[in-house]
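Bench notes, afternoon.
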Amino acid sequence: MNHARKRTLIALAAVSLFTAACAKKKVATAAPPPPPPASASPAATPKPAPPVARTAATQSPTATAPASRYPNATTRARIDQLLAKIEDAYFDYDKASLRPDAMQALQADSRELRDILKDYPDYKLTIEGHCDERGSAEYNVGLGDRRAAAAKDYLVQVGIPAPQLDVISYGKERPVCQEHDEACWQRNRRIHIMALAQAK
């Protein structure tokens, strides 16, 4: 009987130890749930918001960049120099097609002018069309317009953006000379390029 009791006590002790060990394992398995709240804290740190604010700040300088779509004084002076070098292109009587000498006059320094104007899309040039005194005022306005358009087409082929080139015809209203001979008439049959006044 003594032996039986000892065995029973040993069995009970073993069961209680086993139970205690199992309880510890359950406590050990119950411990992992606290880490999810720890993982929730990094998710709760919404630091993507500051980068969004930074990108908005970096976008505001780019929004102000297009404000300088007109050249500064130094660049405008260079444009004026180039325009002065580009001679008036002359036309034959009652014609609006560009002669070889007219193309050569338009080509002079027009590539540098093109490179400058591409950086300033709001800056415009005006191509004026002119005629000699012969013919009606109405006819000469149309002829001057065709001459200015021919010059514009040529400059667009060189690479100057078309939206930066305006055309206007003065017909026979603005002659450069008043004599009534072919030498004077030839000087009046022309196109002239000038910078459009900047609106302020």
